[in-house]
Design a protein that fits this description.
Blueprint: H1 3-15, E1 33-38, H2 53-62, E2 67-69, E3 75-77, E4 80-87, E5 90-95, H3 109-119, H4 123-126, E6 132-139, E7 142-147, H5 154-157, H6 168-173, E8 188-192, E9 198-203, E10 216-221, H7 225-233, E11 239-241, H8 247-251, E12 256-262, E13 265-271, H9 281-290, H10 293-299, E14 305-307, H11 330-340, E15 346-352, H12 355-370, E16 374-380, H13 382-390, E17 396-402, H14 409-416, H15 433-444, H16 448-465, E18 468-481, E19 484-485, E20 501-502
Parallel strand pairs: 1-10, 1-11, 15-16, 15-17
Antiparallel strand pairs: 2-3, 4-5, 5-7, 6-7, 8-9, 9-10, 11-18, 12-18, 13-17, 13-18, 14-18, 19-20
Helix pairs in contact: 9-11, 14-15, 15-16
Length: 503
């Protein structure tokens, strides 16, 4: 083959997505590549840094956790071989032998101890593991976790990708900077960051649960819904998150199919309760009563969502769907405004650059105007959105929360406990000792009935004080090429691709 032809072929491959899927000139083997498109690029691939889906979706492919939740909602070992509570405050975990990190080193107890101790220092994971007092190494394959207090959700927390296990040596050698160069034990190995816009992973042929079916995963960030749909229709991507309005388009295609399924997520408004006039309870109640949630469900989500009563999704343990909220009532909203004494203030509604959220924000803006509240919509990109909301530099923002562990603790504690104001989770800057006591009791009680009781009281208190306004429980909508087989969606939207195939 002459040099001129080689150059031309190289340039062609640079311009055409999916060239890696063709037969390799060296091996003659066909490389199976699945290209997945999300609406935002990940902030980081360091598991413990950010509790956000664009990151954790990819983290799930690279890393493993000590446990996982099976399809029946039960805890089963993953990296762990077995576990035992030798006392209510001592958990002993025995590791599986022979599990290899992507650098060839065997997983040992020191890696687990290092990872857990590191989690206790990171804001996103500290809130979830606050019950842990210490971690000690018994031998190369056994660790002991001592607790400050009993923790009902601990094992569920240790199954969430945020609590993935790192390689101690590799992490320290990178000075902890694994955000764009992660190394785990998972089914896929990290290959290229691509500025976060195009992240490539390769199959881990030594994966302890068996080599993945496909050879490569590529994650592409395409912000615009229309551009993501177009990429799916042209075959540029194989799987994409799509807007509700695009589901019908995908279903009408002979080459594609759509999946729309309930998730553990809730979309809501967060209110900065420390900022005037939002520190006025009656004014917050006015905002809540002014919003026509059903209209958003019908027009923006095309019915692929349901109106939310509480911040805790109905699929999550401890959700109380009998809690009465503030139904859409413009006249009642006007009464609350008069009672509040607030007049002439302009409220800013912040949203990231998600088109669906922007449409919802526009309806909310129109609803507020109908009752005499003027507002402006402030649109920022994802990284800025996370930064500004963590710093409390907003009035109201529209966002979402996925209950990855399917337990109320992961919703009610990090989002609103007073000890986690700011970037740790409580961006409403809410503080109420009574609420704190309730969610603390829910976390430490080992009796399911007691936990349900206190979580119900906590949700009733939130409805009264309304630091958050639950909007709707939305479906996740995905478009897929008909070449994709064995894809099983996860309710927490963090899908695993080990067994997914492409014809």
């Amino acid at each position: 083959m002459n040099k001129k032809y080689l150059l031309g072929f190289a340039l062609l491959c640079l311009g055409i997505s999916g060239c890696s899927k063709e037969k390799s000139e060296v091996s003659g083997e066909k490389v199976k590549t699945i290209i997945i498109s999300q609406g935002s690029k990940p902030k980081s691939l360091d598991p413990a840094m950010y509790n956000e889906i664009p990151s954790l979706f990819i983290v799930e492919q690279i890393f493993n956790t000590l446990f996982r939740i099976d399809p029946n909602g039960k805890i089963v070992p993953e990296l762990a071989e077995s576990y035992e509570y030798v006392t209510p405050l001592e958990l002993v975990i025995k590791l599986k032998r022979g599990i290899k990190f992507h650098n060839g080193e065997e997983l040992k107890a020191n890696d687990v101890a290092f990872s857990v101790n590191r989690m206790l220092e990171k804001p996103a994971t500290k809130v979830m593991l606050d019950a842990i007092d210490s971690v000690s190494i018994v031998d190369d394959y056994i660790v002991k976790i001592k607790l400050k207090e009993s923790s009902a959700p601990l094992l569920y927390t240790l199954s969430y990708p945020l609590t993935s296990i790192l390689n101690e040596k590799d992490t320290l050698s990178k000075s902890g900077n694994i955000a764009i160069d992660p190394l785990g034990t998972g089914p896929f190995k990290f290959d290229k960051w691509g500025d976060g816009e195009k992240i490539k992973l390769n199959s881990n042929i030594e994966y302890f649960e068996g080599k993945p079916v496909v050879d490569e995963l590529v994650f592409r960030a395409i912000t615009e819904n229309t551009s993501r749909l177009a990429a799916l229709e042209t075959g540029e991507v194989d799987i994409a998150t799509i807007s509700p309005i695009d589901v019908q388009t995908v279903e009408s295609s002979e080459e594609l199919y759509a999946i729309s399924y309930p998730t553990t997520s809730t979309e809501y408004l967060t209110i900065n309760v420390q900022k005037y006039p939002l520190n006025n309870l009656d004014f917050r109640k006015a905002i809540h009563s002014a919003i026509d949630k059903q209209s958003i469900v019908d027009t923006v989500y095309m019915g692929k969502a349901s109106v939310a009563k509480t911040i805790v999704n109905p699929t999550v343990f401890g959700s109380d769907q009998s809690v009465e909220g503030y139904p859409y009532n413009p006249e009642k909203a006007k009464e609350y405004i008069n009672k509040s004494g607030v007049s002439g203030e302009v409220i800013k509604i912040m949203s990231n650059d998600n088109p669906v959220r922007l449409q919802a924000a526009q309806i909310i803006q129109a609803n507020l105007k109908e009752v005499g509240i003027n507002s402006e919509i402030e649109t920022v990109e994802w990284g800025t959105y996370l930064q500004l909301t963590a710093q409390g530099q907003y009035d109201i923002f529209i966002g979402g929360w996925v209950s990855g562990t399917s337990d109320s603790d992961i919703v009610l504690f990090p989002l609103l406990h007073s000890s986690y104001k700011g970037g740790a989770g409580n961006r409403a800057m809410y503080e109420n000792p009574k609420y704190d006591s309730l969610v603390e009791l829910g976390r430490t009680s080992l009796e399911p009935e007691k936990r349900i009781e206190v979580y119900s009281k906590a949700q009733e208190l939130l409805q009264e004080e309304t630091p958050l306004i639950p909007l709707y429980y939305k479906n996740d909508n995905m478009g897929l090429s008909k070449k994709i087989k064995n894809f099983i969606p996860e309710p927490n939207t963090i899908h695993n691709f080990t067994k997914v195939d492409k014809e």
